[in-house]
Fold these 2 entries.
Entry 1:
Amino acid sequence: MKLSKLIYSAGAVLTFSTLSTTVLAAGDTVPVKAMADALHLVMDSDRSVYTRKIVNRLVKKEKVIKASEHFEDDKALVLPAQMFRFGAELVQKRAKKLPDVNFTYSLQSLWPINKQNAPKTKAEKEGLKFVADNKGQNYYTEETLGGQKYFTAVYADTGVAPVCVSCHNKHKDTPKDDFKIGDVMGGVVIRIPVGM
Amino acid sequence: MKRFHLSFALQLVLLFSCNASIANANPDALIIEFDSKKLQAGRSIWIDNCKGCHAYGTADAPVPMNIDDWKTRVIKNKSVLYEHAINGFFGPDDTMMPERGGNPDLSDNQVKLAVDYMLELANFYIHKSTN
């Protein structure tokens, strides 16, 4: 059974805390929204730990190494956003070998430095605009792509460090140069197939 | 005497009657105004420079409307809070407060006014919760 089929049920009440100690019985389900929220919580927490315990500590506090977009040339740490993207790419690659695991995630922006990270679907565009216009709120919807129905969630990605904001504002390819700390600069899009 | 929006009592009831983090709610109505001219100036600076993170708990920034976030901070010497806000600060978990909230154009006095407002806001919610 596909994971998405297992988790997609609007009326289900099983929580992830329950999941951790309970073997799922036939018919038990987890709401797809809870699944998306849990995935995002893991992603965001891992990224925060990398930012704080690796980048902030080694670059800002101990000043022993730099973090750079051109990390290979500069022999530097990858930026937190790059770490996030590399993780997304690896998940997508590994998930191909796991037929029961079927979801994708990406970091996108209405103002991308790399045009590949611009939203493509209507849901992505609406979701990124919603989280930028409604700080503190997430966006959830369903969309059908290529005949497949998906649950799509968008979570705000906020600029929290001066270097995030200044790098985006000064980058030669940026379409927006007036970001401030605390501004929503993009969003994490999680897409889970449903009704399979 | 402190002044606040008419709908504030209802918002306060909602705030303290659910477990949801205030960081997930629209905080605008909770960013109340006080009568003092200095606090009004501080509120304006806070909204322009601090709200983006501190109103939502972004990157675990302490939210002044969340009592647990501030009950240990309000008892600190104010000079420590000023120093952290002006020069930046790494917390015990390597969380980072950028110097001057990331706005180098803010003067020391402007940062202090914003800190004063955030402290007053935090104290307001702490006192409300205990009354």
Entry 2:
Amino acid sequence: MTVQATQAPNRYLERPSPSSLADVIEVILDKGLVIDIYIRVSLVGIELLTIDARIVVASVDTYLRFAEACNRLDLKDDGSSGLPDLMGDITESGAKGKTSGALEGVKEKASEIFGSDDDDEDEKPPPRRRASSSSARKRSSSSSSRTRKKAES
Amino acid sequence: MPFHVYGVTRADVVLPDKLEGLYDAPVTTVADDGLAALVSECPEAPTARRAELMAHARVLEQMIETETVLPMQFGMSMPDEQILCHDLLVAHRPRLGTLLSQLDGTVQLTVKVVYREDDALRAVLQRSPRLLQMRDRLASIPADAAHFKQAEFGQEVAAELERMGGRDGSEILGALAPLCLAHAEGRLLSPYNILNTAFLVRREARTRFDEAVGTIAEQWNEVGTVRYLGPQPPYSFVDLEAGDPAWA
């Protein structure tokens, strides 16, 4: 991205907005003044949630997800897109709806973490979030192992 | 009855009308020699559900609209007024006083920038002829033979995405840093999250900062989304142990 050197002042004025639950968890459980011996509240479940939020990047499954996401892209400027062939391969190898399901799962998870459009999500208590994000992960690994199994047979 | 502690402010603070905290309990102050703790009564074993977490944050966000307040981490509950005065206000008086005057007239504003998956990956491929070629070559190989090659391809895409995110993140930080007193970089929560930074901004500089964030949101609109949070109490800029910061 190139930054334009000249910007009309006042053209884009962004107003900050109040924090969602995900934002709140990120700051108030980690930042702020602490007098250790008086931390008394039970944080069971919440620690798990914050650990779960760290997506592990360095795994074959994650790399395959990046590859799948790239393969889905329709690059209009590029006449030699291999997209249709590849989509055929994926469908034949038995993943079918599962592949897009896994990718949707990743997106769901990202929007949960950043709370961009999650007003409904906010109504649920933290444990629900955790359950839904781990199921997204499960879905993604099961879909890629299914792809592999089918390929071996 | 124990008290849940929200933060520390000056004893002459003016509380908003009907300020309610955890379990809808009214928020009051416990003051000692110029300092005041913002508190509300709470049960012996307070819980940390959504309602309590949000209530803690909302009390502090309401206070920071007009007052300087040092936020406590969630979960501080003290058994009675005497212990609260002694172990918080008296024991840490010099440092709390210093922090209150240093942070006077400032707020925390948090900027999170997140790439949209498809748009960011499209940018990666469009900027790298080699990766684009790799993708199209793999598309013609049968799936059973391409498994590891796909993983390799994905790994290279991930690395390029990280490089692009690093560059864009630094550029955004470089545009905002001159407008704040200090900034604190938070954890990036996904491969698509390229900036998650808290900025300490003077109240009178807020409009300028709002404009700068608006400009950034526009500039990066093609690949990502900017979330702009605040005003928050200075969560990332209160430390009982640290020395005086450079900006003070």
